[in-house]
């Protein structure tokens, strides 16, 4: 059984009320329930966190390494565009990771078009709503099974 950590970054606790044009109307609790339901069907263990603070996200990435998780799915939110510290934490633990964004960051404001996280993860999923998390779980599982 693979063990994955899902990390939701800043402001994702506001899903359902925050800019529904970009993020839809599902709450974080509904999305987490979808993730857990999928994980159960696929025989995956998933632990989910949401943090608004950069340092706490870094601590979770370290925790994933020390607690022997098989991979990380992370939606770094706005930290995507400038957090070298989160980027370095992901590179440092060297766990397979997937960056997820609910909205298509490339169809939004120019400052959202660059990710400092993307170069240190297996891949990036952007613009598929909450299904991005499911796609990330599928992708990580397939990658680990094939390696």
UniProtKB/TrEMBL annotation:
<feature type="active site" description="Proton donor">
    <location>
        <position position="101"/>
    </location>
</feature>
<protein>
    <recommendedName>
        <fullName>3-dehydroquinate dehydratase</fullName>
        <ecNumber>4.2.1.10</ecNumber>
    </recommendedName>
</protein>
<keyword id="KW-0456">Lyase</keyword>
<dbReference type="InterPro" id="IPR001874">
    <property type="entry name" value="DHquinase_II"/>
</dbReference>
<dbReference type="GO" id="GO:0009423">
    <property type="term" value="P:chorismate biosynthetic process"/>
</dbReference>
<comment type="function">
    <text>Catalyzes a trans-dehydration via an enolate intermediate.</text>
</comment>
<dbReference type="InterPro" id="IPR018509">
    <property type="entry name" value="DHquinase_II_CS"/>
</dbReference>
<dbReference type="Pfam" id="PF01220">
    <property type="entry name" value="DHquinase_II"/>
</dbReference>
<feature type="active site" description="Proton acceptor">
    <location>
        <position position="23"/>
    </location>
</feature>
<dbReference type="GO" id="GO:0008652">
    <property type="term" value="P:amino acid biosynthetic process"/>
</dbReference>
<feature type="binding site">
    <location>
        <begin position="102"/>
        <end position="103"/>
    </location>
    <ligand>
        <name>substrate</name>
    </ligand>
</feature>
<dbReference type="GO" id="GO:0003855">
    <property type="term" value="F:3-dehydroquinate dehydratase activity"/>
</dbReference>
<feature type="binding site">
    <location>
        <position position="88"/>
    </location>
    <ligand>
        <name>substrate</name>
    </ligand>
</feature>
<comment type="similarity">
    <text>Belongs to the type-II 3-dehydroquinase family.</text>
</comment>
<keyword id="KW-0057">Aromatic amino acid biosynthesis</keyword>
<comment type="subunit">
    <text>Homododecamer.</text>
</comment>
<feature type="site" description="Transition state stabilizer">
    <location>
        <position position="18"/>
    </location>
</feature>
<dbReference type="GO" id="GO:0019631">
    <property type="term" value="P:quinate catabolic process"/>
</dbReference>
<keyword id="KW-0028">Amino-acid biosynthesis</keyword>
<dbReference type="GO" id="GO:0009073">
    <property type="term" value="P:aromatic amino acid family biosynthetic process"/>
</dbReference>
<comment type="pathway">
    <text>Metabolic intermediate biosynthesis; chorismate biosynthesis; chorismate from D-erythrose 4-phosphate and phosphoenolpyruvate: step 3/7.</text>
</comment>
<feature type="binding site">
    <location>
        <position position="81"/>
    </location>
    <ligand>
        <name>substrate</name>
    </ligand>
</feature>
<feature type="binding site">
    <location>
        <position position="75"/>
    </location>
    <ligand>
        <name>substrate</name>
    </ligand>
</feature>
<feature type="binding site">
    <location>
        <position position="112"/>
    </location>
    <ligand>
        <name>substrate</name>
    </ligand>
</feature>
<dbReference type="InterPro" id="IPR036441">
    <property type="entry name" value="DHquinase_II_sf"/>
</dbReference>
